[in-house]
Design a protein that fits this description.
By secondary structure, this protein is an alpha+beta fold. Helices cover about 30% and strands about 25% of the residues. It contains nine helices and 15 strands. Strand 2 and strand 3 form a beta hairpin. The two termini are about 35 Å apart. Its main location: membrane. It is an enzyme of class 2 (transferase). Belongs to the ApbE family.
Length: about 350
């Protein structure tokens, strides 16, 4: 399973910056902020009520606080210190939230979603630590001995207990979505009624695109194209919803010794990069952390098991792109997702 904060990019198919003032209601002003955070870019457009208002510092502060809690790329973050074996750290609300939701998804997916794969992520070369070149089965099996969300717990005092000191957390599979939700909460408190938040392709929307008096809409990237290409297979509308996409067709690592290609989505049950016919999964949910986590989970779960779980999750919809036996692209989508597709 991929626990790294790089996923397939969703491109916002709206004019975020080039809009006609004449199209806007007179009492609505939209502010746009862009930048770099969480190892990727962000683009956020939100409603303000005074030309002087600009929430970029507030946005950057959200990214900073989330990083200090759950970024494995910051050596002094809480998660990095816990991964190193420090036992006296009392987790903050950020860590607690992602931990508890990870536990929920872990249980609902029968362990296919598992943020304790940090050591495997590092070993395969997709984390902050030096990879193990020419990784062999014995080494993978040894790492699996201390992989598993059932091997960790949080005490009443808010401290993490591990069955093995080498258990390593990695919440990157939902950390980006969680940060987006926090930015949305911040904008809500500021009184913004209409916004779209995009970070590395993950998206959260509220209200409408006031510049066009229409719902926000986004495009789903085609997984069958060259890296330099930009083709979309569907466009959907989003209103007060979040969407995240996960895939295994562009992000990979080449072993410098063997020349083997390893995709970045790892299976916590086997310890190996995923090998299946699913190319990408786009998930729509009521918050981005949920969409983010399930998009990753559905890339790892067996195809039929994913469809079964989707039938049980009433607040999660998905669009799955896969290959048939002849290598042709095929799609599956839930009824709720189909209703969002722009015909």
């Amino acid at each position: 399973m991929n626990i790294k904060a790089v996923k397939i990019s969703l491109y916002v198919c709206i004019a975020l910056f080039i809009t006609s003032c004449a199209d806007k209601p007179k009492d609505v002003i939209m502010r746009a902020n862009t930048g770099f955070a969480l190892g990727t870019t962000y683009s956020i457009q939100y409603e303000i009520f005074d030309e002087k208002e600009d929430y970029k510092n507030d946005i950057e502060n959200v990214f900073f606080e989330v990083n200090q809690s759950i970024s494995t790329y910051i050596r002094t973050s809480d998660i990095s210190r816990i991964n190193k074996g420090e036992k006296d750290i009392v987790i903050d609300d950020y860590f607690k939230t992602v931990y508890e939701f990870s536990r929920e998804v872990y249980e609902k997916t029968d362990g296919y979603y598992d943020p304790s794969v940090g050591a495997l992520v590092n070993a395969w070369g997709f984390g902050p630590e030096k990879p193990i070149n020419n990784l062999n089965k014995q080494q993978v099996d040894s790492i699996l001995l201390f992989t598993g969300f059932d091997k960790v717990r949080v005490t009443k005092e808010g401290k993490v207990e591990k069955d093995h000191p080498s258990v390593t957390f990695d919440f990157n599979s939902l950390g980006k979505g969680y940060a987006i939700d926090l930015i949305g909460e911040m904008l809500d408190k500021k009184g913004s009624k209409n916004y779209i938040i995009e970070v590395g392709g993950e998206i959260l929307t509220k209200g409408i695109n006031t510049s066009k008096s229409k719902k926000w809409f986004v495009g789903i990237d085609s997984p069958i194209q060259d890296e330099e290409e930009r083709q979309y297979i569907e466009y959907i509308t989003l209103e007060n919803k979040a969407m995240a996409t996960s895939g295994n067709y562009r992000k990979f690592r080449i072993d410098p010794i063997t020349g083997d290609h390893y995709v970045h989505i790892l299976n916590a049950k086997t310890g190996y990069p995923m090998k299946n016919n699913v190319l990408s999964v786009s998930v729509v949910a009521d918050n981005c952390m949920k969409a983010d986590a399930y998009a990753t989970a559905f890339m790892v779960m067996p195809y039929e098991k994913t469809k079964q779980l989707l039938s049980e999750l009433k607040d999660v919809d998905a669009y799955i792109v896969s290959k048939d036996e002849q290598g042709n692209m095929q799609t599956y989508s839930t009824k709720g997702f189909q209703d969002l597709i722009i015909k």
